Every structure is written in C-alpha cells, then in structure tokens.
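Dear support,

I submitted the protein below through the web form. The confirmation email said the job was done, but the results page showed an empty box. After a refresh the structure appeared. I'm attaching both so you can tell me whether what I see now is the final result or a partial one.
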Amino acid sequence: FNYVTSWYAGIGKQMETAIHPDLVKRRVLSDTSVNQLSYSSLISMTNSCYGCIDTLKKGRKDITILHETENIATAKVLSNNFFDYLHLVKFNNYWKIMNVVWDYYTVTSTGGSIELVATLKSYVDNLKTGDVTKISELLHPQYKGTLALSHSETNQVNKSQFLTTITENPDFYSKKEFEFEILDIYMNTASAKINSNDSIEYLHFTYQNNKWYIINALRNFQF
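What the results page shows now:
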C-alpha cells in the first residue's frame, strides 16, 4: 500500500518505507534488454511526481498477496497505468520490496499456462541434472537471483554467477525433490513457486519473443 500510494502522492519518504536499498525494478523490453530502476532512482522519480494524481482515492490500488512464508512473500499490484509483480523480504519484522517486474496494460504479447508449465518443468529437471546449458536458455540475460540468508542478510547473483554456482556444485540439486506451482499469470508476466526439501523459491517470468524466461528469483531456506 505504501508502495503504490506514495507513487500517486509523490512522497519519497513513504516510498522508502516500502522498498529495500537493493531493490531492482524492471520492465522487460525484449528477450535481451530491460529498463531498470534502482532504489535511489525510484525514490527520486516519486519525489518528482512522475506518478502523481489529483485524488488519491481515485488511484487504482488492487493488491493481491499471492503467497507468503515467515520470511519472504510474493504479490501483485494493479495500479492506474501499469501492473507489478513483487518479491518481498521481511527485515526486522517489516516487509521490504526486493524485486519488481512491471509493464503497461497496453502490452501486446501474452503468454499461456501450458508453455509456462513446460518451462517450470524444464527448469527443475535441469537443476537436478546440472545441465547449465539448458538452464541458461530459460534465464533472461538480465536474470537476478536473491537468496534470503536470514531476516537481514541477502546474497544476490546475476545469470553467469548462478550458472557458475551450479557448475561448481553439480550434486547440490541432484537429490532434491521439487514441486512447482503457478501462482498467477497476467498478460506477459507470471509468478510461480518452487518447493524443495529445504527451501522455497519464488520466480518472476516474462514472456518475450514467444517464450517464457525467468527474470527474477527469490529463495529462502526453511530454517
């Protein structure tokens, strides 16, 4: 609520309460490029009234919590001009938005659930076998993975770092059992959940050039 209403009101201080300093907010432009905002740039744009409206009550604020655990959560926000999928991490008993993928309602490409299920199945199957070549094909070049190590500590990796980790630890996923679930699909964007023996992972997907790609991941071990 603070995230969307501060955008309408142009109040950067309120936006600060909602987002994590390591925030990455992205609109995927193609299967190779994204438009990306950082914590500081989003606060600056908020203060500059990029999203200001005359009457806050008229601002669309449809918020859906898609899934949550003790430490991480995933949600969807529909506002006046665009829609957001969010990954959140709980720090000191307060939720902070870590990853965002968004787009305008005017987007033309729309992905289906059958293709998304196939992508998810391929992802978990290749994690188990350690096939980094096939995993690489499922990850957008601007992929960002976040590991929530505790309530206050995270570790972030890009696509190449994630693939290197799999290469260096080929047996890490081989004995795990995976279950996946599509949480929501909205036009060219989707949210999914993967459970394994010791962790839960939320994924953001983007549909580009007739294919689903993983753009964001948030993972948390079950302490």
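Response: this is the final, complete result; the empty box was a page-load delay. The chain has a mean pLDDT of 93.
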